[in-house]
Amino acid sequence: MAQPDTVWDHYPEPLAVASAPVPEYGSGSLADLLPTLAAGLGVPGMSAAISELTPADRNCVFLIDGLGWEQLRAHPEDAPFMTSLLATSRGGTGRPLTAGYPATTATSLASVGTGLPPGAHGLPGYTVRNPDTGELMNQLRWQPWAPPGPWQPYPTVFQLAHEAGVHAAQVSSPTFENTPLTKVALSGGRFLGRLPGEDRVDLAAEQLAAGDRSLVYTYFAEVDGAGHRYGVDSDAWRGQLMYADRLVQRLAEQLPPRSALYVTADHGMIDVPFDEEHRLDFDEDWELSAGVALLGGEGRARHVYAVPGAANDVLTCWREVLGEQFWIASRDEAIAAGWFGPRIDERVYGRIGDVVAAARDDVLIIASEREPNESAMVGNHGSMTPAEQLVPLLEVRS
To answer: End-to-end distance of the chain based on CA atoms, in angstroms?
Structure first.
């Protein structure tokens, strides 16, 4: 005879840490792109981790902030040129790359420029605790300031390429030239600032032609900005996607001989509804805030720093409250699962939260009082879902 159900039969099971789709570090992540290109240029110490790519003498990476693989595929009419290149992605396999965790700009740009995963380069989130000061540090804006060199001590791929005689250049907005994030993630060779998008891609093509072996990077931010403010699929977002598509085509049509252009992104994005079911407010939730000293990261990828002695209690509470919608892991569990890459440098360990929360569903952990601007964003990113993680690697060769 069947036994009657007990309350424990219906207790929600939290998502298993091991069920999170870990990025393809070492074979198909953003951190593997520049080392693969540099290896093809003969830069010492670099290896071709993305096996599908064929070497070229002149390589240009055009990074479109916020243009995920899923968003591009969903808007063929707004990006006809890039849509025509979808089959070329990742060396003609038609597959995307993974951004890395968390899927956020500061982390991804550091992964691109250093060729290292977050656990090594040390920018493992939008905001993280500085173990030396105990304060939250915004790694995108570099506030409060910390010495860039000790924070990220590894040379960038551009620096190594320049030392090996490759013509290395970054063509981006002049506002980025002297920022700490640029210094730790993208420095090396020449920085050339241009504001209009057309001028930027024209100059990138010139820089490609400036050397027999070239490695050039250029960047477009406005797709991401429109997504945050108005949402993916808004008229404003579509307009920026159309403009980005024209820029890619303009650059592709100017490639000098023996060149390869790679179009990629730092993350994708999803829209999250504005209601209490989808936006859980840390600042108004006593359960989530109990025992928490600092709340880092961002809405879909949180670092939670506990008061001394409370880490296990915070982990238990967050799993009970959020475990059906978020992958909730202790610091050591997230590290062991490979969320931040195959290794964690000692200096990076304390930057990772005692508890790490990665959203699976269309939900956010906002903080309406301490993060009013971020809490008001329509489009969001950070976690390991395909909409956030998957990015294109479109290819044009001359």
So the answer is: 73
Question: What is the Cα–Cα distance from 380 to 298, expressed in whole angstroms?
Answer: 9
8 Å CB contact between 251 and 360: no
Judge whether residue 6 has pLDDT over 60. Answer: no
Alpha helical stretches, state H, the chain:
33-40, 69-73, 80-84, 89-92, 105-114, 118-121, 148-151, 157-163, 180-185, 197-209, 222-230, 235-252, 286-289, 311-322, 331-336, 346-349, 372-375, 386-389
The CA distance from 188 to 316, in Å, is 45
Contact 158, 60 (CB under 8 A): no
Residue 274 has which token pair?
């504005």
Query: In sequence order, what are the beta bridge partners of 355?
Result: 304, 330
User: What is the pLDDT, as a whole number, of residue 12?
Assistant: 59
β-sheet bridge partners, residue 294? 305
Look over the chain and give the mean of its residue pLDDT values, rounded to a whole number. 96
pLDDT tens column, 152-172? 999 999 999 999 999 999 999
CA–CA separation, 146 and 164 (whole Å): 30
Q: Kindly provide the b/e burial profile for residues 245-276, where b requires at least 16 CB atoms within 10 angstroms of the residue's own CB.
A: bbbbbbbbebbbebbbbbbbbbbbbbbbeeee
The token pair that represents 258 in the structure block:
């023996």
- Which neighbouring-strand residues pair with 190? 169
Rounded to two decimals, what is the model's pTM? 0.95
The token duo for 321 is: 């409250």
Q: What are phi and psi of 222, to 5 degrees?
A: -75, -20
Which residues have CB under 8 Å from 239's CB, separation 6+?
226
Enter the tokens of residue 109: 């740009």
Of 23, 16, 117, 44, which Cα lies nearest the Cα of 319? 16
For 332-364, the pLDDT digits (tens) are 999 999 999 999 999 999 999 999 999 999 999
How many Å apart are CA 396 and CA 263, to the nearest integer? 9
Phi, psi of 261 (to 5 degrees): -105, 130
By C-alpha distance, which of 144, 109, 99, 154 is closest to 300?
Answer: 99
pLDDT digits (tens, 9 = 90+) for 188-204: 999 999 889 999 999 99
Say if residue 238's pLDDT is above 70: yes
pLDDT tens profile 284-300: 999 999 999 999 999 99
* Average pLDDT over every residue of 31-35: 98
Sign of CA dihedral 352, 355, 360, 365: negative
